Every structure is written in C-alpha cells, then in structure tokens.
Amino acid sequence: MSSWNSRVLTASTFLLLAGLLPLLSADEVADAAPAPPVAEVAEESPPADDSILSLMLATGLTGLLFMGALGLFSLVSVTVAIERLVNTRRVCIVPADLVSELKRVVDSDRSTPADLQTVCDRHEVPIATILNAGLQRAGRPLPEVEKAMEDAAVREMGALRSRVRPLTVAGSVAPLIGLLGTVVGMIIAFKTASQAGLGKGEMLAQGIYMALVTTAAGLSIAIPSLLCAAFFNGKIEQFFREIDVALMSTFPCFARVEKRVVSASQAPEEDDKASARTQDSLVDVS
Fold first, then answer.
1. What is the three-class DSSP state of 88?
2. pTM of this prediction?
C-alpha cells in the first residue's frame, strides 16, 4: 500500500513538472529575447492623425453628408451673428444724439409736434419710427397716441427679433441633425456587426466615428448659436426699455397739443351757444 502511494506521488510529480516545463521555457525565451528598438516600434505603429479633417473623412460618405449639412448651418449662424452684431448697435436703434435732441425739444415749453417731426426726419431708426407713429395721432387723446406708439414698438421689436430667429433655428435643428447622424452611425455599426461579427473592431469604427463626430459637431453649432440668440434678444429688450423711457418724456408735448385742439373746438361751440341764447332773448322780447 505504501509502495502504491509512493508510485502515485512520483507520477503526479512528473506530470506537474511536465506541465510547468513548457511555461518556464516560454518565460525564459521571452526574457532572453531582446526588446525591439524604440525606433522600430515607432516605425511599426505610426502616430494616429487626430485632426478634425481626418475625423470627418473617417466617417465615410454618409458622415460627410451629415457634416456638410451641419457645415451649412454653421455658415448661416456665423453670417447672422456677424450681421446682428453690426446692426444691433446703439447707433442703429436708439442713437444718443437723437435722445439728446428729443430731450432738448421736450424741455422747451413752446415745443410742438412739428419740432419732434423734424428730429424724426433726420434719423431712420426704430425710435424715430415709433415716435412718428405717435405724431400721426397728435391732437388726439393721449391714450390713442400711446396705443399707436405701442403698436409701432411691437412691430419694430418683432422685426428685429425675426432677424435673430435663424440663430434659434440653427441651435434647435443642429443637435437633431447630429442625433440623426448618431442613429445612422449606430445602425451601420450594428449592421456591420451582424454581418462580420463582433470581432471585427476595425470594421465597426466607421459607424462609431460617424455616430460620435456628428453629435459633437451638432452640439458645437447649437451651443454658440443659442448663446448668441439669447445675447441679441437681451440686447434688443434693453434698447426698447430705453426707448420707452425716452418717449415717455414726449407726452407733455402731446398733452399741450391736445389742450389747444380741445380749446379750439370748444370756442365755436361757445359762440354757437351764445348766439342761440341771443336769439332766445330776442324771441322772448318780441
């Protein structure tokens, strides 16, 4: 029995040594093998090109179509932003010299709507257009004048905001185009995986590239566009608050004109009443 046990132990030892010997020899060969030079490793694996152009070209034809659409949106956004940056300056909406002229005319007790009209004719800006709408109702009750100016202000603000709307549209649509590119890219990736198997990572790269690059491009266009739209809308609202304050000071001039018109209209009525009383007295005497 003891001899049998000794035989089994000896056989087990030999089997264990036989299994470990190839591993030990492989490790010794790997340790003995000289490491390749750094220059050879660099030559075998060239550095990857991570430029934006290479990423765009790696998306393939379908990805280039999406990138072309996003490029068109970016071009429109940049053009609109530059145009609004030039045309939403103070001098284009509420010039300081016009406000000072209005203040000078209003401060005079003898100012008339004709003086205000002269100031408006020298400027073609929204504040002049709004004041001109009120001047066309000069002599009417003040609520009518104020309503006319409010309607003109709403139209002018709508016109200015409509020119900012392309930025809002680009900021809303660009992420959707990027999301569509993401969905299409994932469809291409899963189709490739179903045909070639999951082990073909290099074949899946094209769809994944398109999925990620189009999403990043859409967000890169949407974020600046929405920020620019918010900036220009806030700027327009600030200018129109200043216009409201500047035009409120012109109401005393309209009030004086209204009083003169009312006085002039009441004078003939008083003359008619006086003549009627005279005729009544003559009738009574007779």
1. coil
2. 0.68
